[in-house]
Amino acid sequence: xxxxxxxLLAVLAFGVAMLFIENQxxxxxxxxAKLERAIARHELAEVEQRHSESTGREISPLSENDxxxxxxxxxxxxxxxxxxxxxxxxxxxxxxxxxxxxxxKNNPVMSLQDQxxxxxxxxxxxxxxxxxxxGHVAYLDFSKYGVRRKPLYINVLRDPIERLVxxxxxxxxxxxxxxxxRRRKQGDKKTFDECVSSGxxxxxxEKLWLQIPFFxxxxxxxxxxxxxxxxxxxxxxxxxxxxxxxxxEELEDFIxxxxxxxxxxxxxxxxxxxxxxxxxxxxxxxxKPPTKETKAKLQQSNIWKIENEFYExxxxxxxxxxxxxxxxxxxxxxxxxxxxxxxxxxxKVN
Length: 350
Description:
This is Heparan sulfate 2-O-sulfotransferase 1. The chain is α/β, with parallel strands linked by helices. The chain has helices at about 1-55, 60-65, 80-95, 110-125, 160-175, 190-200, 210-215, 230-240, 250-260, 265, 270-275, 290-300, 300-325, and strands at about 70, 95-100, 130-135, 150-155, 240-245, 325-330, 330-335.
């Protein structure tokens, strides 16, 4: 019995020793990693210092972004005014310009000559840089016009039916942003449910066709309601041409990611959205949620199916970006810090 107890104690002692050694090794590896990062930061600082001395100027994160241009080709009734008000509130503090693109009759499609003028303005109007351009304009591919540096596109999408319902009541009752302004359908008391039930034109499935063409752009096929080509082009542009596309239902997360990605424009935006008054100002008046029967009728249309597919595609992409940009802690989302660093920088500093 005695030898077996001694053997058991020896095994336990060996196990404890191995755990201790593993913990020490892990601690050493963490210390080594911290040392490598410190060395890498020092080497990078030395490289930047040499570059600064050779060019005769100080490297400034702000000055490098002073020619940046952001275009927000805002889709109507997606909380675009709420978001744009944040840019107006921040432009003086963060030292950038905000310009509203006001098209005749809010037409989102520009003539070819206006496309050329707009591209020339955005790319050569240095006095307005850094600039935040916003307006109800369809996506425009700047590379078609031979420019070397394209602007950064951002946008926000909304559930297609929710967006249409909001627009329907907005045309009739307006909102609390400019309550005295007379709207185009003012006086029409018909509810959205009654409109769908009677087959009205203002609530027809064709009215759902808006978010896809806004992302598809200035091709004729983009505006053919129900076009799957337009859907695929919109998806392509969303993934390849837009820096970030958020959703109305998660607007605060969209603003938070923008703040850490583009602090030149959006530093302080999250706190302003949470506590400011302007960002929550615009709400459609007299809006009545549609019934399940009304939604079901609209969802039978091919146009809704395609628009909803695009919305769900955008939502999935945004949630993917968010999962790699923020973490939840104590019930609140917090932006992640930098998770990469540079090492093995050659030639070595003397």
